[in-house]
Specification:
This protein has 222 residues and is an alpha+beta fold. It has two domains: 85 residues, 434 Repressor (Amino-terminal Domain) (Orthogonal Bundle), CATH 1.10.260; 127 residues, Ribbon (Umud Fragment, subunit A). The chain has four helices and twelve strands; from the N terminus they run H-H-H-H-E-E-E-E-E-E-E-E-E-E-E-E. The strands form three sheets. Strands 4, 6, 7, 8, 9, 10, 11 and 12 form an eight-stranded antiparallel β-sheet that branches. It has a two-stranded antiparallel sheet with strand order 1-2. The radius of gyration is 20 Å and the shape is elongated. The two termini are 32 Å apart.
Length: 222
């Protein structure tokens, strides 16, 4: 059992607890015995990718997918192995099509699009909620120094993560189709939405503004 399998096991156990599903019930859903499920969750046996995805689907997490990753071996790997094949709990999340110039916009059809027509990206982050990717537009979060997220980068948004000061968030005001990508900060007991680019103004966070989700990962594609 490779260390990365712990993430898949942790995710499955957490969802079972949330849904109050026993190993017997989960076994019935995927067509195997309680003992087999127990072996997987207690690391006595290692499931294959197909079995892992069947479990995710049985728990209602069709938006996640475990993928087989083939990597070149590390310098200290066994010389007899030309390639290292490992099961890594990579999950896939949809790339949202909502954005406008310099900001992002939530489309009413973002989750209504059929799965086969949607673009997905993989990550080892297992989300607490129905996470999705956004493509950054504009330079509001491009900083001259320190943390910086440039235009064109992919950001992963998890709606279930608590938005506390210091987090990067996607926020939206009532009666507006537009949402913005900013850092949530607190000054003098008041919260603000702060761009990382100092040439952009900060905005007061009010009761009319909602947090769509917290940005938990950012990556570039070449």
């Amino acid at each position: 059992m490779v260390p990365h399998m712990d993430k898949w096991i942790e995710l499955v156990k957490a969802k079972m607890s949330e849904l109050k599903i026993t190993q017997v019930e989960l076994g019935e859903r995927v067509g195997m015995s309680q003992g087999g499920i127990g072996h997987w969750l207690n690391k006595r046996r290692e499931p294959g990718v197909t079995e892992m995805n069947k479990v995710l689907k049985a728990l209602g997490m069709d938006f996640l997918e475990v993928a087989l990753v083939i990597r070149e071996p590390q310098a200290d790997a066994d010389d007899e192995m030309p390639l290292a094949q490992k099961y890594n709990p990579y999950f896939r999340y949809p790339v949202s099509d909502w954005r406008v110039s310099s900001e992002v916009r939530e489309s009413a059809t973002a989750y209504a699009t059929t799965q086969d027509k949607r673009r997905f990206e993989l990550t080892d982050y297992h989300a607490r909620g129905p996470a999705f990717w956004l493509i950054v537009a504009g330079n509001a979060m491009t900083a001259p120094s320190g943390p910086s997220i440039a235009e064109g980068m992919l950001i992963l948004v998890d709606p279930a993560v608590e938005a506390v000061p210091g987090k990067l968030v996607i926020a939206q005001w009532q009666d507006s189709d537009e949402a913005i990508f900013r850092q949530l900060i607190e000054e003098g007991g008041q919260r603000y939405l702060m761009p990382l680019n100092p040439t952009w103004p900060k905005a007061l966070f009010t009761d009319e503004c909602r947090i769509i989700g917290v940005v938990v990962q950012a990556t570039a594609r070449y």
